[in-house]
Design brief:
This protein is an alpha/beta fold and 256 residues long. It has eight helices and nine strands. The protein binds S-adenosylmethionine.
């Protein structure tokens, strides 16, 4: 897969792409992430990329010409052009999974008061927000999308870090994880995880995932793939029970 990030601040983006999972995936040729400086696509002696907005109102807006020129230079047939935009649809694991099937993404990072609307309407295939808050620029959102998508590409995480077991992949939050020591400040790793009984461990993990999701993100349960046993467990939680081996948390009495 190829991902282009178009930005006025390549120096903000490049260090993040050079380290850890993203850096390794790029070095191994599993993803081709390129950073384009929007200014390189601006015309004139001063290569101006922003201007005042029509109709008044404070703040500058990114001009359409450099963004159109950048996309026209970078796009390959079938490339999906994405404008990072707080007004866009919210980025989710499901959307990351869809984007990971594309051959080429072009991510456009806005700045200042935003981007000329013609970019949103005529150039972008998609407008994506990473959440209901406003950041200073689209660089961090573009990195969020690039990271979430890259870790889903074949070979990037390897067998051990399988993305399919992580939060949201199954529609539920991930169950708790522990490492050594077995006891830390009086807190013991649940005995079931040290039992070696794989069927029991799987049941415990499922119950914990259901419990965490019910307690912290109950709206996810509406679209999760639940079995009859899952639903019975949820009914028990609603009656105030907690899953085996879990201390009753303070909010177990929460109304829903
Ligand atoms: N005036 C705009 C508004 O109220 O919707 C906000 C502009 S913001 C300061 C500048 C740029 O940051 C946006 O064009 C977008 O590219 C990016 N940005 C800010 N918050 C974002 C978010 N939650 N998701 C995606 N992009 C965001």
């Amino acid at each position: 897969m190829r991902i282009d990030i178009v930005t006025l601040f390549p120096e903000m983006v490049e260090p993040v792409l050079a380290v850890s999972m993203l850096g390794r995936a790029r070095a191994r040729g599993l993803v081709d992430i390129r950073v384009a400086n929007l200014r390189d696509y601006a015309e004139g002696k001063h290569r101006i990329t922003d201007d005042y907005q029509f109709g008044g109102g404070g703040g500058m807006v990114l001009k359409p010409e450099p963004l159109f020129a950048a996309v026209e230079a970078l796009r390959t047939p079938g490339a999906r052009i994405i404008l990072l935009d707080p007004r866009g649809r919210t980025f989710t694991q499901r959307l990351a999974t869809q984007l990971a099937r594309e051959a080429h993404l072009v991510l456009l990072a806005g700045r200042y008061e935003g981007v000329d609307e013609r970019v949103s309407e005529r150039l972008a295939d998609d407008r994506i927000s990473i959440g209901d808050y406003v950041l200073t620029g689209g660089e961090l959102p573009a990195l969020v999308v690039a990271d979430a998508v890259t870790r889903l590409l074949p070979g990037v995480l390897g067998a051990e870090g399988g993305a399919e077991r992580e939060s949201f992949a199954s529609g539920l939050l991930e169950p708790p994880q522990y490492t050594r020591p077995e006891e830390f400040r009086g807190l013991r790793v649940p005995a079931v995880l040290r039992s070696g009984d794989h069927a029991r461990i799987a049941r415990w993990r499922r119950a914990q995932a259901l419990w965490r999701t019910w307690r912290d993100r109950p709206e996810l349960l509406e679209s999760a793939d639940l079995t009859v046993e899952d639903r019975e467990l949820l009914d028990r939680f609603k009656r105030g029970e907690t899953p085996e081996g879990l201390e009753a948390p303070a909010n177990a009495e929460r109304e829903d």
